[in-house]
Amino acid sequence: MTQESTGRGEWTRPGVYEVAPGVHRIPLPLPNDGLRAVNVYVLRGDDGLVLIDSGWAIPEARDTLVAGLDDLDCTLTDVKQFLVTHVHRDHYQQAVTLRQELGMRVSLGEGERDSLETLREPGRRPLQQQVDDLRRLGASKLADFVEEHLKDSKVDELEWALPDEWLTEGTMPVGERRLEIVETPGHTRGHVVFHDLAGALLFAGDHVLPTITPSIGFEPVLSPDPLGDFLGSLAKVRARPDAALLPAHGPVTDSVHARVDALIAHHGARLDEVEKAVRAGAVTAFDAASQLRWTRREHKVEDLDPFNQMLAIAETAAHLELLAAQGRVSAETSDGLRRYRV
Q: Is residue 269 left, alpha or beta, with left meaning phi > 0 and alpha meaning psi from -120 to 50?
């Protein structure tokens, strides 16, 4: 067992960390990802282990998980169920890959059904819907680049296999614990968190992250108002009793409420910035994103890598749609382009 790390970036250090009695965190590496790692949480159920999230299906992640379970005197065959917070690769892919080999159950939020079924359509290319959205949001050059880069790629059906169980709100026993399943759309339509009220723990997935803001508005089947959904979900979690924050990316922290307050304040300020961009002449989401600054380093959007440019433009569009819903800007679609004006 390794002592919990608290310094910036230290949370990614390989090991097994007891974050609460009987709850262990195992950070698994990610491939070429700025996040570097994803936290998988290990709980003991009545007939074996229950893991919250699973990691990306790469050899390094599997080896790290096996080593971590070994430290707990367990093996992969002791894992009976994965509770997955949302459908992104770094949370879902290793679960369905291991299930094919070892037969454990995989559970996922009901709201992810449409995105999974869309991804599994015959002949579908990776990021096809997101590329189409880029054109609608005014980023046609970026869309052309991504489409050319992915022209020979195909969607892996195993990677997007359906779960054994669709989760809806309710209570689930895990050994002596009772986890409340809370639907938290925003980062994805079907995101869920797991709240252990008695233990004052929130397994937050990517809904509440301690050091970064979750991406919004980037998925195969998009909500009409993803940022509105996200802010509503934050308010929903804020109304629940406070708990320790057990995130998918970043260190464990003492208060969910404190971080939720910071995220709500961030998006309030960002809405003002996006409205200001429209007042300064931005017409499309790409125009507005180009006027903003991104990450702690205050990068321009063109300084980001193509994938993060896609995230930035999609998130700007989510802010614009909420501004339109609030009556602060007007929005219309014509000639395949989504335009915004004051």
A: alpha
